[in-house]
Amino acid sequence: MTNDSTYPGVEAALRQAFQVDIPADRRTAIARRVRTAIGAETARRSTGLPHRRFLLPSRRWVLGLAAAVLVGGTVVGGERLFGQLIAGAPLLEDAWERGTDIGQSVTDGGYTLVLEKAAAGNDRLWVALSVDASADEGAELGRMRVIDANGVVMDGGTGAGTGDIRGTSAMLFGFEVPSGVTPEGPYTLEVTSLTTADGELPGRWTFSFDVPLTSASG
Amino acid sequence: MELTSTDGRVSEERHDASLDDSLAMEARMNAEAFAPLYERHTESVYRYLRARGATETDAAELTAVTFERAMRHIDRYRPGGSGFAPWLFRIARNASIDASRRAHTRWVDLDRLSHLVAPGPSPEETAIANEERRWILGVVARLPSIQRDVLALRFAAGLSGREIAAVVGKSEAATRKILSRSLATLQEAAGHDE
Question: Which domains does chain B show, CATH number per domain?
Fold first, then answer.
């Protein structure tokens, strides 16, 4: 830009201030994610299947929405989707591995949500949820939150999800534990909406569970 | 093929728009050709997201999301337009905005950013550099969001005025004014603090 040299001192300070490098472990994780996306895209093109639309639910992040790895002609259930989801993602794999099996299912509005596993840590409370649509149309999780035994509400965090062409989706989501709080069970997970291609679908899927607090990261 | 990205020097180089276009065109036919695009822009996308206030963890996540989305939607990229970099940074910007809305992310957490400061050659120089960095980030944090974004795109991502205009959806002339006004504000603040 022509005015770049008008304030050389400030510009140099800005460049220096923004000069941050990607930590090696993060760089490796990003590269793995992109590698997976390229592989999924290559597989999709080879099968000629369309992308499955993923919609962003509100009130939380849905990060790492890995391109749905579509297996032509194969019924892919929630369990298998979780396998795809955690493949190549150490943080998710760690959360999955240390998770306690829950296996609760709740159906509302034709959609069955299954709380497969949960894991509580000092920083995050992880839940592994799958959504199975008896209706024709698939859905992803929408609004949800976790409340611990002391009434601490956790409604934000980071997660990753994937889905198959039959409408089943799976998500591992790590609710952020508020700073200075040690989460205590039993916990209540409230899902109050799903996201479909037509928009937000209100409902109520409530799970009560208890899992031990682990010291593992995440 | 192993995906890697080199150190920060990559993002400091002026990106070659025609090379980007060629790679993007190839990636539309062969997904594997997306890898060089990733390698060319990883660092600058990450820095841009950090400059927008994302934590180290969130910036890494959003960087991955940006490239995942770019890969999935590479067919939508039209070579010969404003360029691949603006297209990519629009994806990154949208991902960041979505995430900030949902997570109520603050713009700049100075305490966190202060941890990013690399040690200088001496404790004294380090202390001065840290202080300068904290100061300028603090001033930037008080600017209007569009000014912060333009500064991040210019000085963290290294985009040109034309490219920044394409990302933020304003004319190039308007973008130049925003940048100039932002720098003038910082310069004025520096003068007051001297």
Answer: 9-105+143-193 (1.10.1740.10)
